[in-house]
From TrEMBL:
This is Uncharacterized protein. One of its GO terms (cellular component) is endoplasmic reticulum. GO terms for molecular function: oxidoreductase activity. One of its GO terms (biological process) is fatty acid elongation. It comes from the Eukaryota. It comes from Acrobeloides nanus. The keyword Mitochondrion does not apply. The keyword Isomerase does not apply.
Length: 165
């Protein structure tokens, strides 16, 4: 049977172990440090480790989810229609959008200022996506006249089932 000596609540002190019935010979064996703040330190440490583990798992999830876990949604189903309208479609981002939408199976309406560029882009897109219909509308959006806008664009788009603008 063992007896723990020198245990004082409220102070950090070493606990000494001796055996009952035998005289103390030599130095006693140091067993443990008793400290009331020990549990606070342990709880704080484990809480910090748990939080760091959570943040690491969350970061990995955010990185992997879009590429490994998630399944892509059907854009045509989400749009609810077969036509997409792309303005500024003869250069840069507009041209890229029009090309990608055509590859996804959307019929595309290209709107831009220059009719010759529109025809070039139309031919380019038809080479990459042969099963789609492509219409072009030449319009300069710097024109502030609302009647021109309604006549050239709105009237033509009202005839189509547009899902993406």
């Amino acid at each position: 049977m063992h007896v723990l000596q020198n245990r004082v609540v409220g102070e950090c002190r070493p606990v000494v172990e001796t055996q009952l019935g035998t005289p103390k010979l030599g130095t006693p064996k140091l067993v443990n440090m008793v400290c009331p703040c020990k549990s606070l330190v342990l709880v704080t440490g484990w809480s910090a480790l748990t939080y760091l583990a959570y943040r690491l798992i969350r970061a990995l999830y955010n990185i992997l989810y879009p590429f490994v876990i998630a399944t892509p949604k059907d854009l045509k189903e989400l749009a609810g229609a077969t036509w997409a309208v792309v303005t500024g479609s003869t250069d840069g981002i507009g041209k890229s959008y029009a090309t990608e939408l055509a590859k996804k199976g959307f019929n595309v309406v290209l709107i831009s200022r220059d009719q010759s560029k529109l025809e070039n882009v139309k031919a380019e897109i038809q080479e990459k996506a042969t099963n789609v219909e492509i219409k072009t509308i030449q319009f300069d959006f710097t024109n502030p006249n609302l009647a021109d806008y309604e006549e050239r664009i709105v009237r033509k788009l009202n005839e189509l089932d547009v899902g993406i603008l």
